[in-house]
Amino acid sequence: QVQLVESGGGLVQAGGSLRLSCTASGRTGSNYAMAWFRQAPGKEREFVAWVSGSGGSTDYADSVKGRFTISRDNAKNSVYLQMNSLKPQDTAVYYCNAHSPLRTYWGQGTQVTVSS
Asked: DSSP 3-state helix, strand, coil percentages of the chain (rounded to 5)?
């Protein structure tokens, strides 16, 4: 069983930056790809960014390309999301996700609010 705990959310002005962290309680290492999703009020959960098990490959939603950077540290069982040039439309609960062909785990989410 893997538990994911996110941190780093908060309130920031438009144009500002935040760095989200997600730490796994169990050992995930390179066996699990990691991702960030977000869900705004009244909307469905949407994909934000993905990183492969080794950290060598990444992918991003078009809406965050060039502004957000996903990274991971397998020694610390952690994944990060550096968010720059934040916009009010980035306001959402951000969820950490770990997945393999057989398992998927979700964190409890962390609130990010961007004021205009």
From this structure: 10, 50, 40
